[in-house]
Amino acid sequence: xxxxxxxxxxxxxxxxxxxxxxxxxxxxxxxxxxxxxxxxxxxxxxxxxxxxxxxxxxxxxxxxxxxxxxxxxxxxxxxxxxxxxxxxxxxxxxxxxxxxxxxxxxxxxxxxxxxxxxxxxxxxxxxxxxxxxxxxxxxxxxxxxxxxxxxxxxxxxxxxxxxxxxxxxxxxxxxxxxxxxxxxxxxxxxxxxxxxxxxxxxxxxxxxxxxxxxxxxxxxxxxxxxxxxxxxxxxxxxxxxxxxxxxxxxxxxxxxxxxxxxxxxxxxxxxxxxxxxxxxxxxxxxxxxxxxxxxxxxxxxxxxxxxxxxxxxxxxxxxxxxxxxxxxxxxxxxxxxxxxxxxxxxxxxxxxxxxxxxxxxxxxxxxxxxxxxxxxxxxxxxxxxxxxxxxxxxxxxxxxxxxxxxxxxxxxxxxxxxxxxxxxxxxxxxxxxxxxxxxxxxxxxxxxxxxxxxxxxxxxxxx
Length: 463
Ligand code: NDP
Hints:
Elements: H1 2-24, H2 30-49, H3 58-77, H4 83-111, H5 118-146, H6 159-179, H7 184-202, H8 210-232, H9 235-259, H10 263-267, H11 281-285, H12 294-302, E1 306-311, H13 313-317, H14 321-333, E2 337-342, H15 352-359, E3 367-369, H16 370-373, E4 382-386, H17 395-398, E5 417-422, E6 442-446, H18 449-462
Parallel strand pairs: 1-2, 1-4, 2-3, 4-5, 5-6
Helix pairs in contact: 1-2, 1-9, 4-5, 4-7, 4-8, 5-6, 5-7, 5-8, 6-7, 8-9, 12-18, 14-18
This protein binds NADPH dihydro-nicotinamide-adenine-dinucleotide phosphate (NDP).
The site of NADPH dihydro-nicotinamide-adenine-dinucleotide phosphate has 31 residues, from α8 and α13.
């Protein structure tokens, strides 16, 4: 009977997750979606804590205290700009936890001589495999985003053959486990080989392709949890894991489309073009870069009717969103038509720019997607690029050897005038120079994003 109540509570929690996810699809309902998801999780946790299989609460309380303390310190210390690597780390910890919980359940079943079904061993092998790939792959992704390891694509001959061989060895250990359910050693061997695969899959991902991989690893962490749900015969874990897995896969597909990368290749870590190479900065810029002062830019803006603002990672670094919002209000009060062009991978996490601009109360209907804004650049007088680089780099269209080759960009160079706000000519995440900065219709407004926009506001008000 207890089980019936437990399953009804899990059903309620799962429904709250599904409705929460639906609400998260739109900024207007996203807060409610978050709340629904949180209530669902509270129900799931409380019901699980009352599970009659729990023998002692000491370890659970100790875990709660340590985990909460770590979470609290992280939440206070981590900068907004470092959120993507933290997300990568959380994905990894989720995968690692799934592999360890599956191992514990397997070892316990062996001790009690209760390894009965093929489903149990297959689910254990799947949790170990996906969990270990997610853990090590995410750690490497964290290292790349944090700058601890090179963010460039690392390729070596025979990489694909090695990955296929590793996959075959994993299947072999999985088969051993299924045939001989007492072979705990086969589980750990499978986890070890999967760990190597996690690293070799992420090594060749570099340049601008990390968003796709973060989304994919997020999905893997969900699949690992779902597999562990089958090991523990826990319905809520299966449902939650499947929801994370499928929504992560949908996000990966959206990211692949945004970056024009084949989905199948992403799954095998074969994203992007070559490593940053090709033309040197000196060849591209060759004394052709023009810089302007805030007063000069204010004069150009004064004559403009239609202005498009393109934010990027630099806006997040300098926390310039509120200054950008004030600038947009000022420009509109002067009769200008102002819109924002949002590239799907601008910043360092999906939706990064949308979140920051929403925080600064910029109306959502002013934010235009890449497909909406690109056809309008021909009729745009001024584009203000604020801390964006890779997402406006024309090399994506012209240089097949570049790491961003084939990625659709915001075609800001089609506008009459482009003003780029950043601190120097340094490259963006992909590590390549940007010919836009040397284009005839482009001027650089050098400085920290927030400071320079405040100066620009003062100059416009004075003009
Ligand atoms: P980029 O990383 O291409 O460029 C950001 C620019 O911001 C830099 O060139 C830098 O130049 C400038 N900048 C840094 N700090 C400041 C500051 N304080 N004030 C003004 N400018 C500043 O950013 P984009 O948004 O154009 O592109 C995102 C890149 O990140 C893409 O390559 C994408 O693939 C990748 N990525 C995206 C993820 C996602 O999910 N969205 C996840 C992981 C990677 P300077 O130092 O000269 O100021």
